[in-house]
TrEMBL record:
Residues 121-142 have a biased composition (Low complexity). GO terms for molecular function: DNA binding. It holds the Pfam family Myb_DNA-binding. Keywords: DNA-binding, Nucleus, Repeat, Transcription, Transcription regulation. PANTHER family: MYB FAMILY TRANSCRIPTION FACTOR, TRANSCRIPTION FACTOR MYB72. It comes from the Eukaryota. This is Transcription factor MYB13-like. Its main location: nucleus. Residues 114-146 are annotated as: Disordered. The gene is LOC103705419. It is found in: Nucleus. The keyword Ribosomal protein does not apply.
Amino acid sequence: MGRGPCCEKVGLKKRPWTPAEDMKLTDYIQKHRLENWHAIPKLAGLLRCGKSCRLRWINYLRPDIKRGNFTQEEEATIIKLQELMGNKWSKIASCLPGRTDNEIKNVWNTHLKKRLAPKESSPSSNKTKDPNPSSPSKSSISYVNDDNIKNLEKNNSLKVESSRDLANLMTEIFMEPDQCNMRIEGHEPSVDDCRESSSISSLESHITSCEGKNNQDCLIQVPEIPIDSEIWSMVDDDSCFLTPEVGPVVEDGAHNNATSSIGDSKGEGETKGWLGCLEEEIDLWGTMDANAVKQLGPWGCHGGVVEEFDPVSLLLSKETLPTFCHESCASGPSMR
DNA sequence: AATTTTGACAACCGCCGGATC
DNA sequence: TGATCCGGCGGTTGTCAAAAT
């Protein structure tokens, strides 16, 4: 039955690692293949749990760890990705070469969260009054993350499986009167419109009508978390973001070249591929036919072209996409 | 100068999903 | 098929140094 016991808890050392322990672990890992964390403590002569060794290596000893303060660009990336994906630190870390999820988590908790706190409200608290409701900034799918979806599904017995569900979801998130910034291009709803269930139908029909169209024609603007304009300027600055030269780190320590800016010359197919990854990450694919997934081409998570009917593509236009990398999808799991 | 408070970050804890037996 | 393990992940805690009193 099963495997052998994980690790002997008795006698395992806790608390900070000493330089000698670091040296032992580093030495062992550099001389041997990394196959079994469970076995490493014993083999390396450490009174540590394998898990502890793994954490120490991944978060501190790894040679490709980038030390020092986070740059403004990195912080902007974290902010944007956190906004987009929630506390998926490992996913966020995969977009920041040399940074670990633990480090990013710490930075978020100690710096960024506090910095944004006065202005930013959580998705669930977006229903509170917006101090400046008439100033929706850039659009994004900021609030359509898995937390939103899960909470809404839980609270409202709602399952996101169709464009109708998505429309319901979005209205559920944004329909507070004071927050009614959502609009479909060419249609400017009043606050009352937003309250009306017809707006759900309107949105649903819009989403449905977008099937098969270029997603640039299908822009739906949603309110944006108000982040400092300077951050936006950084986010908008292509040069600030990850470039192929600093592509994400993969397990062998090398960089890949998969990273590119959304909206760059590599074209829309890549953008859609990225979106496909994103959708998968936040489970927006819902009940998508498995065969349809298999048909996706050679890019991204499934390596493919995102079908036109996919939900997030309908919510985004090329110009609203942040310039994130898509490494986590394009090159497999990063090493933590 | 001594003490208290605050901030930063390394490390731990517990849960989960997939793999293995 | 079910029990168990392993690796990964996110949340939380503990420790230490710097800043404030």
